[in-house]
Design a protein that fits this description.
The chain has helices at about 5-25, 30-45, 50-55, 60-90. The protein is about 80% helix and about 0% strand. The longest helix is centred in the last third of the chain and has 32 residues, at about 60-90. It has about 100 residues and is mainly alpha-helical. It has one domain (about 5-90).
């Protein structure tokens, strides 16, 4: 089972990576992709909010919730990795994706 603490740390790491990439990019398409990833992280943070974590769940229900939240985080990380790979291959000022 993925822990809440692990997920929160990973969200922070992804947010820092997105901020670094945004600062280096000029390509609107790549900035838009990073916006999608950041939006996904917003959903993850909502899933980890105090209200959501305080819901009455069984241990298996909580495990499921955290696993699904981890899946959402993974999708955001993949989006960010895609942008990283494009930048590594073509540079930060790429105009076509």
């Amino acid at each position: 089972m993925t822990s809440e603490t692990t997920l929160r740390a990973a969200v922070q790491q992804q947010r820092q990576l997105i901020a670094t990439l945004r600062a280096a990019l000029s390509a609107p398409a790549l900035l838009q992709l990073l916006g999608f990833a950041a939006g996904q992280l917003d959903i993850v943070e909502h899933c980890l909010s105090a209200d959501e974590m305080a819901r009455d769940r069984s241990p298996s229900g909580l495990a499921w919730w955290l696993d699904q939240t981890a899946n959402l985080l993974h999708a955001a990380a993949l989006q960010t990795k895609y942008v990283e790979d494009i930048v590594a291959k073509f540079g930060p000022d790429v105009r076509s994706v």
